[in-house]
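re the bet — no i am not wrong, look at it urself. input seq straight from the record:
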Amino acid sequence: MKLVSRMRQLRRREEGAEAVEFAIIGPLLFLVLFGLIYLLILFAAQLSLGYATNVAVRYAAIPQDSFGTYPTGDQALAKALETTPFFSGDTCTPNLSSGAVNQPVALTLECSLPNPAGGAANAFRQLLFGGDEIPSSVELSASAQSRKE
């Protein structure tokens, strides 16, 4: 009789159930959490690149001296990189096109942002799914126009 009552007690106890539930749900929770953080970083980088492009195209549309000398693409890139913490001169390529006075100046910045999920995610993906590798960087681009003064 004592053995039967002991078995009923053990069956009612739920010690450790939370740990088992967390072991099942935890990895999925962390995957979603870190994925959201990564998407927020990408969103912030794209917004920063758009703002930097606007600043740089305004800078490129204004003459630098009384002789009417306008900034080059590299000078516009340097001005853009002053305003964004996400990119450097090594990771960005400017494409500046300008016409005569009162004509539009167009600037396109193409930058690559390192992908923090590259190494570990590639190993995990190859192990479970195979297929192509995850790129080591993400390409972002922004364009802006201003009237040349």
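see?? Helices lie at 2-12, 17-60, 73-81, 118-128. told u. also The longest strand covers residues 104-114. so pay up
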